[in-house]
Amino acid sequence: MRQLKRRPDIWSTITTTLLGLYFLFLIYPLISMLSSSFQKTGTDSFSLYYFARFFGKKYYLSSLLNSFKVTLAVTFISILIGVPLAYLSTIYRIKGSTSVQVLILISSVSPPFIGAYSWILLLGRNGTITNFFKNFLHIQIPDIYGFSGIVLVLSLQLFPLIYMYCLGAMHNIDRSLLEAAESMGCTGIKKMFTVTLPLILPTLLAGALLVFMRALSDFGTPMLIGEGYRTIPVLIFTEFISEVGGDSGFAAAISVIVVVIATLIFFLQKLVSEKLSFTMNAMQTIESKKTHGVKSLVIHFFIYVVTAIALLPRIYVIYTSFLGTKGQSFTNEFSLGSYYTAFGKLGRSINATLFLGLCSIAIIVIVAVLISYLTVRKPSKVTATLDTFSMFPFIVPGSVLGIAMLSAFSKQPLMLGGTSLILIIAFSIRRLPYTIRSSSATLRQISPSVEEASISLGATSFKTFFVITLPMMASGIIAGAILSWINILSELSTSIILYTNRTKTMSVAIYTEIIRGNYGVAAALSSLLTVFTIVSLIIFFKVSGSKEISM
Predict the structure, then answer these.
(1) In terms of CB atoms within 10 Å, which end of the chain has fewer, N or C?
(2) Angle at which helices 58-91 and 49-56 pack, to 10 degrees?
């Protein structure tokens, strides 16, 4: 009997296509960047010149050391703030807890460099708080510039990540464990350190890794307030962009070093987390207890003050956006002049942000849905590889990805440099993981028996996916897409490398206006970006039915 020819499985074709796209737009650019790092500009031969130059000069090594100082300090402070905040919010009944959570989320989703700009207005040499202490209290307080300022800005920006991760983990703790500890005399801070903290440690490590990576890759904050305190992202940008002494090959070599370090840290965290990981299902979730007296006052004071300080930069920027300007100073008169300029002279940047963002989201939704379905419903070594590729942008700094893409696509056969398409591809790759994770989480909650019933009635697996599975995944897809959208709005490190005058985004426009000293226009654009973000968050909460964001 003649063997029937086997029809190619459409899911195999989709898997191969997606892998091909990742090889073309992620792996190939990284390989191209790697090749540039081993080839001195003007020659075609293999060379270790750039690496010898980096490791041979204290100037460059100090930048790497500075970056580690910043990232470690930011990670430590974020844990120091985020863990107690999550613990107190879970264990005790906090008045207005829902509002506090939402406000903390809002404080975390704006670009860090906007926080840096806000603190310049508050704690700069001519800042509002600085002048108040100087003129009324005759006290000269330290300004925002340098190492301490960078750490302050990034810590206030990133501690909400630790808070959100730990808050979610604490909701999975069975209260019987805490009750057992209390029955043995383990209460208060001792209970937190000996019982609660070990239970949430794998999740805490995951949050700490994300904080570490974001602090390591942030470009805007040290660029604005570093004042000579060089970090690796600033060094990469300077070497790549500078018309005097800039060298794209050297920038590529530094980028390779950063990727290698980031990858090693990622796998170290993964190894430790796997050793500490365990399954935990809460049969009885923790019930918040009501507090009274001084204890209640102290707990509420801590939570409210932290939330207020985190929100202060955003509130002040919105306030200053409605003030008139005189040179680089704000007047005491209210004015909409900054908004007229923002919508007029820089209106194109608003349009570019919305256009590039919407195009990126369309791609993200399609690709994320397919990848999440393949990794959850069609597990194999190939789909596992696809999943790894999709999550790799988490550990690749935006500026590094931008340099890699320019290195690969500024020559034939694909000349994408300077086009909108290269930004759309970069945004899509960078922000895909949010939608993939959200879609995968929703799909895991859908029983495969629903799809099996459809197939048993004669529908193909592909038709079942579109008619049955996709509508059931809708809430997770939309929630993930909104998270991706929020992060695209705040993207700077990739945009600053890839943009042209036609593709200048709001983040780049804000950054350039700050550099030029046009603080009023920067404040207006920042306020608009904050409004876009808040509206997106409100839609996220409505769609997902959640008051938390898990990343």
Answers:
(1) N
(2) 70
The residue ranges of every structural domain in the chain are 10-29+50-544
Closest CA to 487 of 440, 528, 536: 536
> Do the bridges between strand 323-326 and strand 329-334 make them parallel or antiparallel, or are there none, so unpaired?
antiparallel
> What radius of gyration do the chain's Cα atoms show?
25
Q: What distance in Å separates the CA atoms of residue 370 and residue 372, rounded to the nearest whole number?
A: 6
Q: 67 with 76: CB under 8 angstroms?
A: no
- Classify each residue of 427-462 as buried b or exposed e, where b means 16 or more C-beta atoms within 10 Å of its C-beta: bbbbbbbbbbbbbbbbbeebeeeebeebeeeebebe
- DSSP β-bridge partners for residue 411: 414
Q: CA-CA distance, 25 to 290, in Å (whole number)? A: 53
CB contact at 8 A, 409 and 417:
yes
Q: Vertex 316, ends 229 and 305: CA angle to 5°?
A: 85
Helix (H/G/I), strand (E/B), else coil: 460 = coil
- Pairing verdict, β 414-415 and 410-411: antiparallel
pLDDT at res. 487: 84
> Is the CATH number of domain 10-29+50-544 1.10.3720.10?
yes
Q: Strand 414-415 to strand 323-326: parallel, antiparallel, or no bridges (unpaired)?
A: unpaired
Per the CB < 8 A criterion, the answer to whether 511 and 64 are in contact is no
Q: Which of 438, 443, 446, 436 is nearest to 388 (CA)?
A: 436
> What are the tens digits of pLDDT across the range 376-412?
888 888 988 888 888 888 788 888 888 889 888 988 7
Record the tokens describing residue 392, joined without a space.
């790799």
- Quote the CA–CA distance of 291 and 94 in Å, as a whole number: 9
- Can you spell out the DSSP letters for 146-184? SHHHHHHHHHHHHHHHHHHHHHHHHTTS-HHHHHHHHHT
Token pair belonging to 158: 């990133």
Give dist(CA 236, CA 119) in Å, integer.
25
Cis? peptide before 413, omega within 30° of 0: yes
Return the beta strands (E) in 400-534 as ranges: 410-411, 414-415
Q: What is the pLDDT of residues 165-223, one digit of tens each?
A: 888 777 777 677 776 777 777 776 777 777 777 777 887 888 888 889 888 888 888 88
